[in-house]
Amino acid sequence: MPTYHEIMTTDLSTLTTAAERWDGMAEKFHKQETAYQRDVHGISMGQTWTGLSADAANRRFDTTLKEFQNAQVEAKSIASLLRDAHTQFVDLHKKLETARDEAVAKDMKVSDQGVVTYDYGKLTQGEHQALAHDPDYQESVRKAVNSWQQRIDQCVQNVDDADKGVEIAFTAVVIDSDTSDGTLNGFNGKAQGDVEKYEADEAKDIATRVDAGKASARDYQELQRLFRDNAHDKAFSQTLLDDLGARGTLKLSNDLESLGHFDDKKNAGRYKDLENGLATTLATATRDPNSDFYKHFRADMQKAGVEEFKVDGLSPIPDEKVRGYQSLVTLMQQGHGYSGQFLEDTADDVRKAEESHFAKGNMESVWALRDDFSGKDRGWFANDPLDGVLGIMSEDPKTSTEYLDPAHNDNLKYLLHGRDWATVVDHYATPPGGTTTGLPVMAEDGDVRKGFGAALEAATTGEAPGAYHAVGQHSEPQARILQDTINTLYSDKAADHLPKNLSTPLAHVLTSYTPDTHEIYAASDSKYDIDWDSTGEVWSDKDGAHVAVGHQRLAAVMRGIADDGGAFGHLYGAEQQYSHHVLADIPQDAGDKTIQNRVVESSRAMGAYDGIRSDVIFDERFNKTQWAADFNHGIGTGFSTALMFNPVADIAPVGDLTSKAIDVWAYESNKEHTAEANVEATEKNAKTYDAGLHDVDHMVRAWADSRGHGIDSDWTKSFVHAGQDQYDLGRNRTLDTLRADR
Predict the structure, then answer these.
(1) Please, what sign has the CA dihedral across residues 599, 602, 605, 607?
(2) By mean pLDDT, which of 54-63, 310-319, 515-524, 529-538 is the weakest?
(3) pTM of the predicted structure, to 2 decimals
């Protein structure tokens, strides 16, 4: 392994000098070829010499001529390899120099041997004393030194990886691989000038041994190095996958999964690292959708994707086999950085495979397996490859939006309405009076729609999924996806009892659209004051795109979310915060009419949310105590995080009062709702809705107090009364939608 000192002091220009000489050698071989062809080969091929001896000689002369040609190929390839090595080493040398220079700039010293220490000489006497007596200071110095040492060491390791790759290339380039050229150890007429292509050949050989169960520990170490050294190299990645083919790629992935999860668990980390390397290779190779490689590999995968493979240890069911696309997406989950086109194409191809399967009259999913593949121990396997690739796609919000935009395709409709999500064979039905196995009875897996939910969240918010989103500007495609989602769920009568695992991502989404949901329930602005059953519209203004749908459609989806008390509690808290900021945004010199309109709108919106909450409480299938506790926690979590809405900048000098007001209001609100966390109080609230009504009271009084009015003044009371009336209206409108029988 080259040392830090060797790397920093080696004259790399000798590589290009050597390359020039090898080019010169190729030119000399070309001159010899010309002379041989003219003076020997050409004469021997004339008409004056015939017979067996002539035939034998001509074959020898042909071989010799071919050797002159092969010698040129080999010499030029060696020259190219030398230049490739020079390019790599110069780049890696520069990165090592940069790391050293940046370390020095951060008060480190780097010795000639690459050892990092802290440069105490830069400290003042006072700083020396502070360091000597401050353990935290000492620990921060130690961590900084270790961090820089790791970076330096990694740079050295990268050079060593590249050096081994160059060694592989120079060993292979001189091997005569053509057994039919008339020589045993002649010049290599198939020599190549790319180090990475030789490394890919080496990786393919190791993959063959892995599949045969004959790979050694050294093989696995070398494969790790090959992936590490060529993580983002297009030539290596495309050459390796082209050599393996789609089927060979899947087999290698399956072999590594079997070893890591079942056959050799003690070395699970090694196999996970190899899976990550193979996934990175896949991402790098498929980055250009217009390349010949991409088109060929995709076509190859379309065939292998529906083939059956045995993954040792995966299923306790004898002879259970998985499909290629399940293995592909399992592999893809180990990496990142896939091109948007590759993700969309893979999703399209998986969908086509399942639609084709059902079109043939099959009753079970093409991905059907007789086991559950969710949870900590089994969830790693992508038994539903479409859901799996959507989960990967969610890391790329732009691609998620493109894939789900109903203006350009029917993917969203298929996922919400047309797709059969049952991928687990629950059992087989036995015909009456018979003993033969009947039709499969299918069920949904435990993690069903997890990927779709994540992609839906990314597509509608433009942000990574998994958390509640602050209010932000949306694009029309993002808003259009949300509009279509609400309408499809409502039309399918799936809104108030949402499909499994969609409640949380939809709750995350709707926090980002709180200004729109607020206006829909307020029913004041003409763009939002639409028919209860309207499919609505999407439009844009200076604040981005907005979505409006009928009141009852939105309420139904929120009712579905409310099956999860915590998720709905956070939505409720988001509306509380937004209503507060609507009031805080009222100009200081606003007239009573403007103030009353804002109070009315906020009260209606909060009443609508409380109508949903009350419908949950009315529903006997809930454990009211637990739901109320989860709801309260959801509100508390919302207020404990950073405000989702930007404080109004033009309300000074009373801005501090406004900030204080929301703290007081949050305290009062949580106190009221905490009182519900028992069955009696919850049932009572279903009838009297005290806590929700008091939310409006607290909101108006807190706002009035921030504007310098007493909380019991006539001026304040007039708006409190208006808020109470409109809260009641908003609550009853929503309950009428959800509970026609009440």
Answers:
(1) negative
(2) 54-63
(3) 0.85
